[in-house]
Amino acid sequence: MIRKLGAMVIDGVWRLGFASRFLFLLLRYSGQSFLRLHLTLREIYFSGVLSLLIILVSGLFVGLVLGLQGYETLQRYGSSEALGVLVALSLTRELGPVVAGLLFASRAGSAVTAEIGLMKVTEQLKAMDMMAVNPIARVAAPRFWGGVISMPILAALFSAMGILGGWLIGVAFIGVDDGAFWSQMQAAVDIRYDILNGVIKSFVFGVAVSLIAVFEGYDCVPTAEGVSRAITRTVVSSALAILALDFVLTSFMFRG
In whole angstroms, what is the distance from residue 181 CA to residue 67 CA? Predict the structure, then answer.
């Protein structure tokens, strides 16, 4: 047991050091990836555009559920007209960045890990090294920045669809006053305090998820089982990182 515990600690410290060095190399060679702009644009399409469907549909249903639950709660206190405030603040501050980040990690993060892992299994990364092509600049950096750029946009679209879902269920179906729904929302939601902080959260989540996805794919054992374990670690680690970072960021941003 002591030997296994020691091996786990040593492996964890080694992976942490390798991940830190990997992040430094990503940032160092990012300039080369931006010089080949088509590589980054392709990864933005892969990570962002192809994730739009699940983001928009999930945002709509989260807004619908939030509108139903919020109206039932607010009606008890005679404040059903504040439904727009509840929906907008919940989405822009918390649900938008967090849920969009979890969906992004499940869809795009796992796909990036699988893609890089399969390139490692088929020795494409070694072949690039032999041809004097830096695999970090050619493969890892464009995928990293594609995820970082896509994540805030996806979170914003998730929040917008959630607000639309809350309006549909609250105004169109239940009968909350349309003017009160939008006017109270506009008066209560602050651009810097609510929207900008939500964008900062989504950007941080994008950096964390993209780094984990690229690192796990680059570091995986070059076997079928190794790739599957790397994909699992990507989803689990990304979810835990998002929730932990959300708590840390919230404690600094919303101190009252």
Answer: 11
